[in-house]
Structure to design on (324 residues):
């Protein structure tokens, strides 16, 4: 697709490394296809060691693919790495601020490194400070800032040269919940105010869910799903229904009634609880409740839970992302 800002086909990375004395090949990324359109926020989700950073390093030209092709911002990562680098912003896990220089100076140096004038760099930098809620921080040293402020400074730096596309590698790792939620707002605002296209890696389910227009799930070097969070959830999992009964003598009958609803799966009895998955609990539950009432089955509680991305991951891989 001509307008894709990222277009990768069969992108792969095999590391030749040693385990003790033995030589081993680690297939960190096993031929992935990635498409990202202008203006999208795409979350690249996967457990530790799944291949997120390696993929990001290939897309940002820091690591040469061992197989496959990719264009980023219209340029080939293998043959036009300099053009790729000029068109993107990259905020690594460790950040890029030194801690000693003043924040504003770092921003201006970074802009000038990308060939923009000092005046322009300062103008863009100050604008970004305002957008990222870093007012009054221009002359501060990064080492005196909070974790959240420093991450926002890293992001400001990645955006100083006004790239078409910005890569964020685990942007909120190490931040407390409040600073994380705050950064999410800033990342969404960047898209709203600047039209930035964002490709971010994360191993937080809630982060991918809250931020991304589309989610790519990578597991063991392979992309196992690529869709909106809503589609992923409704395709794979189905709502989870949990009924708590007053009398466990009636659990079998309840389970049968639940299981006879079209599309019901994974029905199980656990003590006084009966659980199952339903494609669309909202429309099926009223009928079920009437049916149970007619049969004289009394409920203590009823809970309907929308599927989470963890359910999606579990369905795709058989493992929970929380545990993985
Ligand atoms: N330079 C290297 N040499 C050998 N193996 C490597 C190298 N870099 C990464 N790997 C291996 O490749 C696999 C993918 O690693 P990668 O860092 O891309 O995963 P990740 O999804 O980013 O994980 P995390 O969330 O922990 O950052 C892992 O098994 C890792 O050990």
């Amino acid at each position: 697709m001509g307008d894709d800002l990222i277009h990768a086909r069969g992108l792969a990375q095999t590391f030749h490394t040693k385990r003790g004395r033995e030589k081993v090949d680690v297939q960190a990324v096993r031929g992935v296809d990635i498409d990202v359109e202008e203006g999208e926020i795409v979350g690249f989700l996967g457990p530790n060691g799944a291949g997120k950073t390696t993929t990001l390093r290939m897309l940002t030209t820091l690591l040469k693919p061992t197989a496959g092709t990719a264009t980023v911002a219209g340029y080939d990562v293998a043959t036009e790495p300099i053009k790729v680098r000029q068109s993107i912003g990259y905020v690594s896990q460790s950040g890029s601020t030194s801690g000693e220089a003043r924040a504003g100076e770092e921003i201006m140096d970074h802009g000038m490194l990308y060939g923009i004038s000092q005046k322009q760099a300062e103008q863009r930098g100050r604008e970004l400070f305002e957008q990222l809620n870093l007012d009054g921080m221009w002359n501060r040293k990064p080492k005196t800032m909070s974790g959240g402020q420093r991450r926002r400074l890293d992001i400001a730096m990645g955006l100083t040269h006004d790239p078409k596309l910005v890569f964020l590698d685990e942007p909120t790792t190490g931040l407390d919940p409040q600073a994380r939620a705050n950064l999410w707002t800033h990342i969404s605002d960047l898209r709203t105010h600047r039209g930035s296209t964002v490709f971010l890696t994360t191993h937080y389910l809630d982060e991918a869910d809250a931020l991304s227009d589309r989610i790519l799930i990578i597991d063991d070097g392979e992309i196992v799903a690529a869709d909106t969070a809503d589609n992923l959830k409704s395709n794979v999992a189905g709502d989870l229904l949990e009924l708590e009964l007053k009398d466990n003598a009636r659990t079998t009958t309840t389970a049968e009634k639940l299981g006879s609803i079209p599309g019901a799966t994974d029905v199980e009895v656990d003590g006084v609880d009966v659980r199952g998955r339903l494609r669309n609990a909202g429309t099926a539950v009223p009928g079920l409740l009437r049916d149970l009432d007619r049969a004289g089955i009394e409920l203590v509680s009823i809970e309907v839970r929308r599927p989470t991305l963890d359910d999606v991951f579990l369905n795709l891989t058989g493992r929970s992302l929380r545990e993985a």
The pocket of adenosine-5'-triphosphate is lined by residues 15, 17, 26, 28, 46, 48-54, 203 (CB under 6 Å). Residues 4-17+28-233 form a domain with the Rossmann fold fold (CATH 3.40.50.300).
